[in-house]
Every structure is written in structure tokens, then in C-alpha cells.
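Quick one before lunch.
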Amino acid sequence: MEAILLVGGLGTRLRPLTDRVPKPLLPVAGTPFIAHQVARLAAAGVDHVVLATSYRAEAFAAGLGDGSALGVDLEYVSEAEPLGTGGAVRNAASRLRAAAEDAVLVANGDILDGHDVRAQLELHATHRADVTLYLTRVEDPRAYGCVPTDASGRVTAFMEKTPDPPTSQVNAGCYVFRRAALEEIPPGRVVSVERETFPGMLAAGRHVLGYVDDAYWLDLGTPAAYVRGSTDLVLGRVDSPARPGPAGEALVLPGAQVSPDAVVSGGTTVGPAAVVHAGARVEGSVLLDGAVVGEGSTVRRSVLGREAALGAGCDLDDAVLGDGARVGERNELCRGVRVWTDAVIPAGGVRFSGG
Ligand code: GTP
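Model of the guanosine-5'-triphosphate complex:
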């Protein structure tokens, strides 16, 4: 079984965390996010994965190697200019080994989910569909690709980010293509599967099927979702074969130092060489490699980037410190504030609010 993973996006909504590291390589529960996805696919029988890279392409092979540690044969293709989701799939197709009628999985590289991949593949094979889309149901479908289906499960429309969605079913970002259908995407130009390929296939009367699965599903595109995905993995609300260790209140990675007087909870990850000083409380957060939380500081639902340093007596709630950022003592950062990579905020008891 083969899969193409789309990992070439710029990850702009996650800036500044994606300034130096592409979104799919950001650590989630201590492991590059894409490794969780590859491990899940391997558990479902996938043995050959092609990563469609573009932004910071060189970082992927350096971080993941040949895939043997994850149980797959991993290959990389790169687009000189990003070709969009469809163009990237078409560009990666040259590396596939499948025959024309075989099934190929295609997945966005930023979705954390627990859906039954084998069941999706089986449905696709039973109905001999051209493409079978994994659909999930969300409370507010307006921000997603809304995908209504008829009684037989056939997709009847594909409506990207519509203000008046007719159903709560949305595109969950994992597709099974018949290889021959995938090769019909025009090569060498920008194509969006969501805006062009799927609507085009429907207009041409192709067999587009929906596979609805209400398992855990999260798009890790924003800082709040990134933090939630990481804490949910640590707490065991969603499982991954690549989680380093059993589920629990906190994941403290080798080389990290947490003072016996500090409290680390709510699914927090403390990355390698990160330090949490005495009296600090860190709840539901992500501390990347080498980050420092000063004495008596409180950190909630926040991310400290690599080597970011938070001074003593600070209060962080729903905030992001970019790699190398330094926040001096007694500051308060809340409601979506982002401190840019290597930026410095002097000590001083100031309240920074993003809302
Ligand atoms: P934002 O800039 O924050 O919207 O994030 P993004 O760039 O990752 O875009 P989006 O979340 O819409 O992308 C969905 C998935 O497709 C992600 O896994 C991206 O890495 C991937 N992707 C998006 N555009 C491209 C592209 O042009 N080429 C490749 N190879 N992958 C892409």
C-alpha cells in the first residue's frame, strides 16, 4: 500500500513557529508531527510513503531519514515553486509503484486523527470508486470544505468554505485515489484538489465517494490547535504508535530539567534540554528544545519555541514565544499574543494581550 503526504505548505498561520521549521516537522508530544502520521499509516498497512515537499524541503530528509525507523520506505519529492495540493500530488505520482487500478492514499500533513484507514480503503475497493474522501462532522462547517453525500454515500457537491453549508460533513484531508484518476490531474502547474480536482470530477460524473468517520480529528494549522493536538496526544485522548512513552499528565523528555518545586500538568511536553524553574506552573503547553520557564512563572495553553526564555514571575496564557525569543521578568502575555523569533521584551510588568 502506498501513500503521498502533502507537507509543502508555508504554515503561515503557525508563524513564528514555522519560521525555521516546516509545520509537519514541529514536535507534537515530543515527536515530529509527520512521524505520528507515518506511523499510523504504517500500522494500517502502508509500506511506501512519498513526501511531497516544497517549503524548507531539505529539512524533511534530515529529520526523518529513509523511514526505516517508522516501518516504511520513505521517499521525497520537491517542488521548486509550490504547486498547491493537487499539483503536489501529481508531481509526486511519478514515484508511485502502484498499477493504474490500484488505490493510493493521499493525506494532508497537518491533520491529527484517529480514523479507520483500513475501513476507508475497504469502502473504496468495494465500490470501485475513483476517489473516496474521508469526511468528518464538525459543529461549524463554514471554515472547511463542505461535502454533502446522497443515501448511497456518493458525494453530490464540494463546497469550499461556504457561508451557508447544507451539511456538517467536511473534507477531513485524507483521500483514496484510484491511481489512474490521480494521473488525470494536469502536471506542471498549480492545482488545488479542493477547488479544482474534486469539483471537476463531480462535474464529469466520476465516482466520488464519502467515507464518514467521527473519530478524533484536528487540523493543526493554528497555535491553539497545535497546543491542543500535542496535549491530547500526551493525555491519551488520541493515540499514536509514535508517542514516546505511555499517556499521562506530562511528557518530560530526556535531558529536560523540571524543578521538584514546579508543577507540570495538563498534557504538557517539556522538550529535551528545556528547564522549568522552582515554583513555576506549566499547564497544557508545549516547551520546545532548550526553552526556559523562569522561577514562579505560570504558563497555560502556550508554546515556547526552541531556546525561548521566559523570565521569573511571568504569566503566559494562550501565547506563543518564537524560537530564541526572550521575555524579561514580571510580564503578562495572553489571548493569542505571539512574540517573534529572537525578539526581546524587557523586564517590566507589562500586559500584552492579543484580544
Ligand atoms: P497555512 O499557510 O497556515 O494555511 O498552512 P499550509 O501552508 O500548510 O496550508 P494548508 O493548511 O491549506 O495545507 C494543507 C496541507 O497541504 C498541508 O499539509 C500543507 O503542507 C500541504 N500543502 C499546501 N500547499 C502545498 C503545496 O503547494 N505543495 C505541497 N507539496 N504541499 C502543500
